[in-house]
Write a structure and sequence with these properties.
Length: about 375
Amino acid sequence: MNSNVLCESFKAHPAVYAVGREYQITVVTNVETLMWVRVGDEEFYDDSNGIIRSGKPVHKMTVPAELLDSQGGYTVCFRRVIERKPYYSETEDITEINYTFRPVTGENIRIYHISDAHNKVDSPVGAGEYFGNSLDLLILNGDIPNHSGDIANFDAIHEIAGRITKGEIPAVFSRGNHDTRGIHAEDLADYTPTDGGSSYFTFRLGGLWGMVLDCGEDKDDSSVEYGNTICCHWFRQKQTRFIEGVIANAEKEYLAPGVTKRMVVCHIPFTYIYRKPFDIEKELYAHWTGLLREHVKPDFILCGHMHCTEVWYPGGEHDDHGQSCPVIIGSDPFLGRKDMDVFVGCAIEYGERNVKVRFTDQDKAVVGEEEFGI
Ligand SMILES: [Fe+2]
């Protein structure tokens, strides 16, 4: 079966997420299934130590990026489970669905950035279709669900990624501060790509190297809003060690052969000091900004969270910690009209010497533009 029609057992088309030098192919089903993917003549299962998983509607299959890039497609294989038993489980025949895949190549990369959808789907998808079939990479940058209090909110992630990419191009996922809220916040890592459970990681797509950082919550862990459920200061300290480790390993990361572009993705723009009670981690965020400025030297940092569309330049009014590069704030979910399904995201043409940023709405109208050299 080919992928042009969405399989009735799937909630959305797969998403092919970049993490490290791998892709994590995520498929969410509306029936209990056993699942694996085939790339070339190799198979990659969604398993738990040799047991094919069926207990959750989300399936994640990890494949080497080099293999999928060279094969240009993959096959999602699954069986519906009739009844899973200790002995003589009953399952249906295998269904196979073929997806083509186009990796990021070349020096001109078209990226669409969506964050802060807050459960909206149709208008972010409309915006994300700006580049049509020439889109190379989708970035979902936090607060795609409104919160994690209802597992159904995670559907917005899979629907947006599936409808825009159709499982045919890569995506990058980064967590936002609203994602940390609610009883299912601890389950989000099962539904989204992680590096061994961590929501911060580096990725490589052709000549593009990227680092996803995760600020976690936006207020101090002691905020009464969190009711003693948050340890984000400790989580951020672990990330400081992660960034320092990436720098120590630069020759295999951003200085690796073939890397020509470097970007950082993070939901919260941590280079800016907010008003109380959001004025947290001044020392730690200054350290992160300094590590990027002195060592990583990204071409830009891509953020959301602010519900506005702007580019903050080094030395500008929002540069509190010493930026070395522009910070793109790339989504406005409401435009001051909470009663309507509107959305503005960010279309990025990432060239050899410059970055062209267009803020575009759900009808593909350009509502703002910026351009800077790299
Ligand atoms: Fe946010």
